[in-house]
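Morning!

As promised:
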Amino acid sequence: MKRSLLALACVLMLTIGLVGCSEEKKDEAPAKQDTAEKAAPVEKIILGVAGAHSGDLASYGLPSAEAAKLVVAAVNAAGGINGAQVEIITQDDQCKPEFATNAAFKLVSDKANIVLGHICSGATKAALPIYKESNLVCMSPSATNPPLTQSGDYPNFFRTIASDDAQAALATDFAMDTLGLKTIAIIHDKGDYGKGFAGFAKKYIEESSKAKVLLFEGVTPGAVDYSAVVQKIKGSGADGVIYGGYHPEASKIITQLRKKKIMIPFISDDGVKDQTFINVAGKAAEGVYATGPRDITANPMYKVAMDQYKASHDGEPGAFFFEAYSAAQALLKAVERAGSTDYDKIVFALRNEEVETPVGKIKFDSKGDAIGVGFSMYQVKDGAYVEVK
Amino acid sequence: MDYFLELFFSGLTRGSIYALIALGYTMVYGIIELINFAHGEIYMIGAFVGLTVAGVLTSFGFPATSIMVLASMAAIVYAAAYGYTLEKIAYRPLRSAPRLSPLISAIGMSIFLQNYVMLAQTSDFISFPSLTPEFAFLDKYSSTIGSSDFLIIVVAAVVMVLLTLFIKFTRMGKAMRATAQNRKMAMLVGVNVDQVISVTFIVGSSLAAVGGVLIASHIGQINFFIGFIAGIKAFTAAVLGGIGSVPGAMLGGLILGWTESFCTGYVSSDYEDVFAFALLVIILIFRPSGLLGKAPIQKV
């Protein structure tokens, strides 16, 4: 009995192995055909849209699918791309990596030419190797995990949203290049958000070697006072402070710094770019820098996208709608400029030619991040945050 | 040396506040063996009353020093009333109940008061005006010790001396000590125990209110949640010094303040709480009833 069970198990395992292998082969085969076909002129361009369209994170993915539809409808109405009509294939990954690989295989075998997606960073990471092998350009409106672009592993990956570390990159560049700080104290609130920001800031300062991190410390949120840490900042002799966290602690620290007549620049993040910070810290808040999302409502394409959405829907567009709209535009424009669906030509167009989109006039850097997207530096002036030009 | 002094004073400031609040915990525990978890909320309410009064007086154009004094007085009166009422409605009916019941009642009152202030006021942080006068003679040392630090230290010291005198030399103080030693015996020799307990709550709450106004003016902001963390830290200080012992609470507060401050200064503020509580554990291992606490006498 036991032996026969064992044998059965072995057989089952073998079959699964075989099925697995043959599946992979099946997928490789069309992929090769695909690349062969791509060289030829196309009559139809297939835009794959992958992301969470069901499940508990569907609200992150559905607006992107909607944005893609709107862009494609507009492009097709205007005669398509170089005469070819655009068709959308959607694939649902529920933001789960295991479904994302399935979705990616499906899109590859359905001969998608370009892919808009995925939505979540984990799912995107799982799907990217598959697109890379098939020479497919993939552009996410929402995957913010820094290594996706910065690792350099996926030259086929682009995104229209700033990565998680963009705020820190902006803050450190501003501190070192604009303010010319040489020694910096980094303080954070030990939380995911604040410590994440502070960690990236530290990394960038150390990598650039233009400045030195003298202090890297976490404070306990809600503590009775922060004078000890303020003394420590003073004792370290830093030229400036970078703070990662939220406004209640930031306002306490800045008040005590100014009380001790330590007037060095104070640079913080979006958690501090809040009117409450200014109301609470009062005079001490004057001159404080904080990064915050760039205002995109003034962009000409923003209005176009919004009007298009309002014409067919009620209410406001959901999460990442404008990023997805921009990504779809950038992808289709790149195909148009490339004149074919050839991978190298599309990538070249994405990296070298600007596109007018709702999030601004963008092109992509060599790693795949959109240039000019994301955050701006603000400074408190006369009791309000003003963008630093 | 300068750096050491800076940290010393920063710890002393912090410790004085902890001590002011810890006194309330320890006095109440000494008398009725109840950990009054709502005590941190009294501190918070004191700060809010101080803010309201300060706001009104500022609009009338009073000078800062008199605002500070009047706001503190108002906070003391209000917080004392709160402490008195709290004891009346939440603890007195449960005095003969098992010890867990008043404890739950205390936690309930703490949550109730927090949420009440949040709904009645706001959940946001509010700016608190700096009411401390700038002492000219401190100008030279302004980097080591600020005016508000100085004020906190001095006020805490004065209050503690007064409290010690009160407990040592007044009739009510004697009654308090008697009640703390043995409530039943005190009752039998004619001490009005109910009154003693009420006075204990009133005194403890007043001290917390003073702490609330001082620290709010020092850090410049308050919200409904400040009482929780301050309360936990003060409670730790009280346990450290020996709960039930008045000098113990003062000593515990100062030691906790210094530990945190020096740890931040010489090690890292990441480990501030780790050091503070490690110290607590170590002290409790060697002296289970705290630094100045008396070992419980087994009553047979």
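Strands of chain B lie at 126-127, 221-222.

Hope this helps with the figure draft.
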